[in-house]
Write a structure and sequence with these properties.
This protein is mostly helical. The chain has one domain. It is built from 5 helices and no strands. The longest helix has 32 residues. The radius of gyration is 23 Å and the shape is rod-shaped. It starts with 9 loop residues before the first helix and ends with a helix.
């Protein structure tokens, strides 16, 4: 064993694939963070689009100005999603869980 190899894990010093597990977990964490940021940006865009609609247009899609204002007051990174931001699939899933 070379003197410098003592600081490396055995798997990394031996050149096995196990030495890459740390890098893989870092990449997986980075992908999760990037996904959460993308979801927050999308929620922000959707909230701005809803806020730009007239009261008549909001009524047409079954929302009130108060619901939109409430959604806009929430942080975009919150996981709990108000009914006015749920898509059809989310609403259906909620109904299935409640049954």
């Amino acid at each position: 064993m070379h003197a410098n190899d003592r600081s490396l894990p055995r798997s990394a010093a031996a050149g096995t694939k196990d030495g890459w597990n740390g890098a893989r977990s870092i990449m997986a964490a980075a992908r999760r963070v990037a996904g959460r940021i993308a979801a927050a940006l999308e929620r922000s865009q959707q909230r701005r689009a809803l806020a730009a609609l007239s009261d008549h247009q909001l009524r047409d899609i079954g929302l009130t100005r108060e619901e939109v204002m409430s959604a806009n007051a929430r942080p975009v990174w919150r996981k709990d999603v108000p009914a006015c931001e749920q898509g059809p699939a989310e609403s259906h899933d909620d109904l299935q869980r409640a049954a």
